[in-house]
Design a protein that fits this description.
Blueprint lengths: L7 H10 L4 H7 L5 H8 L7 H14 L4 H19 L1
């Protein structure tokens, strides 16, 4: 199976859905510099494996509470599935 990717707009959606400030969100995903979060959300920077794992873990923990995040999880899973078929 292909590596799951999460893009900037999805990171922003996750943070906003959880109603977290940039600082709170950065802390949750163990990101020392919240300014880096802006780069991730803006698509200027792609999360590395460790960051991607933290983001996907936070997403999976939250899907039961928010239908919007369940849809996001499905989108990410489908994209990974499509990449593995290529």
């Amino acid at each position: 199976m292909a590596l799951k990717e999460i893009v900037g707009s999805e990171i922003a959606l996750l943070r906003k859905t959880l109603k977290l400030s940039e600082g709170e969100f950065a802390e949750r995903i163990d990101l020392a510099d919240r300014l880096q979060l802006k780069e991730y959300e803006g698509g200027k920077r792609k999360p590395g494996p460790k960051m991607r794992k933290a983001l996907l873990k936070l997403l999976s923990k939250s899907t039961g509470k928010y239908s919007r995040l369940k849809k996001l999880q499905t989108t990410i899973d489908e994209r990974a599935k499509q990449k593995s078929l290529q």
